[in-house]
Amino acid sequence: MKLHKIEAGSFHVDGGAAFGVVPKKVWQKRYPADENNFCKLHMRCLLVDTGDRRILVDAGTGDKQLDYLKYYGFEGVINFPDELAKIGYTCGDITDVVFTHLHFDHCGGATRYNADKSAVELVFPNATHWVGDAQWQNFLNPNVREGDSYFSENMLPIENAGKLQKVSRDLVLTNGVELRLFNGHTVGQIAVYVKMAQQTLVYCGDVIPLAANVPVAWLSSYDIFPLDAMTDKQRMLEEAAEKQQILLFEHDAYTECCLVEKQYNKFKVSKTLRFEEITPTP
Ligand SMILES: [Zn+2]
């Protein structure tokens, strides 16, 4: 098995949105903000090459709505064909794309406008694209809060091409790669569990977007159902602490991965890791 991280670009969100009810005086010690109170977030995708399958987890925001979303200050948004070529793959090699959920910063990069902008095409034409069934239903009929984060042109071309698979319960995608469902940030979010030689790597998505969000109550204001978000984050952390699983953060611009521990009933980061320190080979 080989693992690659693919940095798909960065954007900015208000620190108040990133840390919800936590006062800035407290969170600013754990995550920096600029003079406008913006925090820099990455879009860190994961490519798992099992030999038989090449599984991409999340695809960043892509470039279709960059004008509309300019408030977020997107920077360094990648072009997947170029980025994959650097590590020896083509877009056609990707067999599976797993979307943690369908907010634009997670799925937009899997589709693009064709040359004359007359149609939207799939960036990974041979891939089966996986999404939580509840997330898909929410995408089709969004609440007023999430409607702004969903763009039909990001997903309908994939559905229309017959390349979308909906996940309604936890499943084994292939040997060593599991998809598990978590609620709270949105409904039916997928976290990806990759079994490595010694440890399991957890691609947390927006269950825990930043290392600073590890404390259960440190929720983002973008979490639609806060109590569910805390319950399901706790569920992820309990297992991660017990089994010493490695958490991989999609949005953290400064911390790629970490281990967690439970002390006095609270979770905290016990060790930070760079992606390069993870050894996948069984
Ligand atoms: Zn996100």
List the helices and strands and how they pair.
Blueprint lengths: L1 E13 H5 L4 H4 L10 E12 L4 E4 L22 H7 L9 E3 L5 H4 L3 E3 L6 E3 L5 E5 H8 L11 H9 L3 E4 L3 E4 L2 E6 L6 E7 L4 E4 L22 H18 L2 E3 L8 E7 L2 E8 L9
Parallel strand pairs: 3-4, 4-7, 7-8, 12-13
Antiparallel strand pairs: 1-2, 2-3, 5-6, 9-10, 10-11, 11-12, 13-14, 14-15
The site of zinc ion has 6 residues, from helix 4.
* Discrete helix count: 7
- The proportion of residues in beta strands is 25-35%
What's the pLDDT, averaged over the residues?
97
Find the structural class using helix and strand composition. Answer: alpha/beta
Tell me the count of domains.
1
The CATH architecture is: 4-Layer Sandwich
Are any ligands bound, and if so which?
zinc ion
Describe this protein with a few key phrases.
single chain; 282 residues; alpha/beta; Metallo-beta-lactamase, Chain A; seven-stranded mixed β-sheet; six-stranded mixed β-sheet; 7 helices; globular; binds zinc ion
In short:
By secondary structure, the chain is α/β, with parallel strands linked by helices. The chain has helices spanning 15-19, 24-27, 80-86, 104-107, 133-140, 152-160, 226-243, and strands spanning 2-14, 38-49, 54-57, 96-98, 111-113, 120-122, 128-132, 164-167, 171-174, 177-182, 189-195, 200-203, 246-248, 257-263, 266-273.
Would you write up a description of this structure?
With 282 residues, the chain is of the alpha/beta class. The chain has one domain: 4-Layer Sandwich (Metallo-beta-lactamase, Chain A), CATH 3.60.15. It has 7 helices and 15 strands. The N and C termini lie close together (7 Å). Zinc ion binds at residues 103, 105-106, 206, 209, 251.
